[in-house]
Amino acid sequence: MNLQPTIANELLQIIPLIEADFGELFAIASDELLWEQHPEKDRYKKEVFQDFFKNAIESKSAFKIIDVKTEKAIGSTRFYDLNEAEKSVAIGYTFISRKYWATPYNRALKNLMINYAFQFVEKIIFHVGDTNFRSQKAVEKLGALHTETFLVEENGRTHITYTLTKENWK
Predict the structure, then answer these.
(1) Considering its fold, how many domains does the chain have in total?
(2) Rounded to two decimals, what is the model's pTM?
(3) 76 within domain boundaries
(4) Long-range pairs for 158-161 at CB < 8 Å and ≥24 separation?
(5) Which domain holds residue 41?
(6) In angstroms, rounded to a whole number, what is the distance separating the alpha carbons of residues 107 and 65?
(7) Cβ(63)–Cβ(16) under 8 Å?
(8) What 8-state DSSP symbol labels residue 141?
(9) Does 73 map to a domain?
(10) Do residues 25 and 73 touch, judged by C-beta distance below 8 A?
(11) Which residues contact 99 (CB under 8 A, 6 or more apart)?
């Protein structure tokens, strides 16, 4: 599975993230309200976002999300934790501009990524912070099931694992 394809649908396109995307994405990520339910509530701060962005670039599996109508960036996402033995991959580290919340864009993004991934894997994993109720509701609407709750040792935060199988994919 190519973890950084360029793919598109009628609403958006995802393209491999590059260093030059920092300013455009930080302009979106600097909205403090974007992170209010997220476990890393201070990601709106430049120095915190710089670490997030650096890790995204180093992952070689992160994307810039582009609105095809405006040709402007609306956020970022990535594939991660590809496990060929278990035929699974995770989707996450996603944020989109609040302007696009409660619009068809988030679902279009997930449809795009999930349909691509299911060509290569049998299940997709989502890790969601236990206080990120918006994201929990969004992945449940996809048909993903709560399969695990775990504590991240290095930061003491609780996360929930959701698993989406081909047969549960709506």
Answers:
(1) 1
(2) 0.93
(3) yes
(4) 158/129, 158/130, 159/39, 159/127, 159/128, 159/129, 159/130, 160/127, 160/128, 160/129, 160/130, 160/136, 161/125, 161/126, 161/127
(5) 7-168
(6) 13
(7) yes
(8) H
(9) yes
(10) yes
(11) 74
- Do 118 and 134 meet the contact criterion of CB atoms below 8 Å apart? no
Cα–Cα distance for residue pair 38/59, rounded to 1 Å: 21
Q: Is residue 98 part of a domain?
A: yes
Instruction: Give the separation between CA 76 and CA 57, rounded to whole angstroms.
Output: 11
Lookup: tokens for 137: 């509701």
Residue 50's CATH number: 3.40.630.30
> What pLDDT, in 10s, does the model give residues 29-83?
999 999 988 888 899 999 999 999 999 999 999 999 999 999 999 999 999 999 9
Record the tokens describing residue 91, joined without a space: 């989707």
∠ Cα 62 103 17 (to 5°)? 15
Cα separation, 18 vs 60, whole angstroms: 9
Looking up tokens 């962005």, which residue turns up?
53
Does residue 1 form part of some domain?
no
**Cα distance between residue 62 and residue 128, in whole Å:** 17
**Single-letter amino acid, residue 98:** R
Q: Of all residues in the chain, what percent carry a pLDDT higher than 70? A: 98
